[in-house]
Amino acid sequence: MNAALDVVGIGISPIAPESAPAPESLPAPASLPSAEAGADAAPDALEPVLLPPRGLVACVLAALAVIAASAIVWAPAVRPALQPDLVLSTWRESIDVAEARRRDDATAAAAHPVAARGGPRVAEAQLRSALQDWLAREAELGAEDVAADPTARAMLGRAEEAARTLALAHGNDSLRAAAVHYGRAVRAATEAALVLARQRHTQLHGLLAAAPADPEVQTLTRLAGGLALALVPAGLEAWLGPGGGLDPVVGRVVEALAQGRVLALGVRLPTGAPPLASDDVLLLLRFRAEAHPGLTLDRRLRRIEELAHADPAYPAQFARGVWFAREELWTEAAAAFVAAARAGEEPERAHRNARWCARRAAAQVQ
């Protein structure tokens, strides 16, 4: 095939093989391509490239790194959002539950040598029966109306006489032991009823109303009567653990309430009714003021006032501020927290809460 046909299509003039110059006779690069080649000739000259001085790139990167680090180090601090602290937990700190239990064990053990002969046990059973009759009447009439009912007053008199008989025959320790036994029985019955209420996806109040024939409900109502109804608004369901037991401090609240009912029956003793232990009294007062969910704001403020009189060290202004804030009474809350800070009641928390409530009050006005 003619060699000229292979190259005509790409615009290169055919050159006979025999006329090709020898390698050593090729023209110098400077003479190629000729001016006549025009646009058809491919340029083979290299375009110029600018190169930075050696080390310049590394210096620039290092400078940028220094600038970025400086921006991080000397950047203005971001102020965290102001957050309140509205937790009230002094009721938990008011008692050592383990120590209270040891004290109760010692009280019960002190009556045990006499109890072995059976006398105190019989008298204690009679006392509990009379107390249960009175509490049943209280459940029927209500705590406010029971005091004016003649039948209820007669029942209360029989219970007080039973307490006097027990204490005079076997010593005041036997009455204290009866209070310990009763308190533990009420706690156990309350926990059993709460577990049943959880299983049925209801609250204690709903269980007592809907299932009066259930054994757990009968045990609690027969044992505690009006006391069981008094426990309903205390929100005990929230304190029931996965295993079916109450939070230890809340369980002590239940026991202390029950013990107080027994000890109050000793008013006919020559020495008067034995007092409830001081840490139990403080626990009940602080629980009502801080953790009881069933109180209106007015009643809670009265409880705080009572607690402040009974315990001058109690941070009453701070507690008032917390409950005002929870009711979204921002102006009153801010004023209470300012007063708490001035009185040295949790000053750091009080200052922070006062600022937060003041901002809320201002936003509310706008």
Explain what this protein looks like in three dimensions.
There is one protein chain. The protein is an all-alpha fold and 366 residues long. It has a domain at 90-277. It is built from 16 helices and no strands. The longest helix has 28 residues, at 172-199. The N and C termini lie far apart (99 Å).
- Given the structure, what is the number of helices? 16
Quick one: how many beta strands? 0
Low-confidence stretches: 1-43
Mean pLDDT: 85
Residues in β-strands, percent: under 5%
Spatial shape: elongated
**Rg (CA only):** 45 Å
How much helix is in the residues? 55-70%
Q: Whole-Å distance between the termini?
A: 99 Å
**Overall SS class:** mainly alpha
Q: Summarize the helix and strand pattern as letters.
A: HHHHHHHHHHHHHHHH
Largest sheet: none
Describe, in short, the structure shown:
The chain has 366 residues and is an all-alpha fold. Helix content is 62%, strand content 0%. The chain contains 16 helices and no strands.
Question: Which properties best describe this structure?
Answer:
mainly alpha, 366 residues, 0% strand
List the helices and strands and how they pair.
Layout: H1 4-8, H2 56-73, H3 90-93, H4 97-115, H5 119-141, H6 150-170, H7 172-199, H8 204-210, H9 215-224, H10 226-231, H11 248-263, H12 278-290, H13 297-310, H14 316-326, H15 330-342, H16 347-365
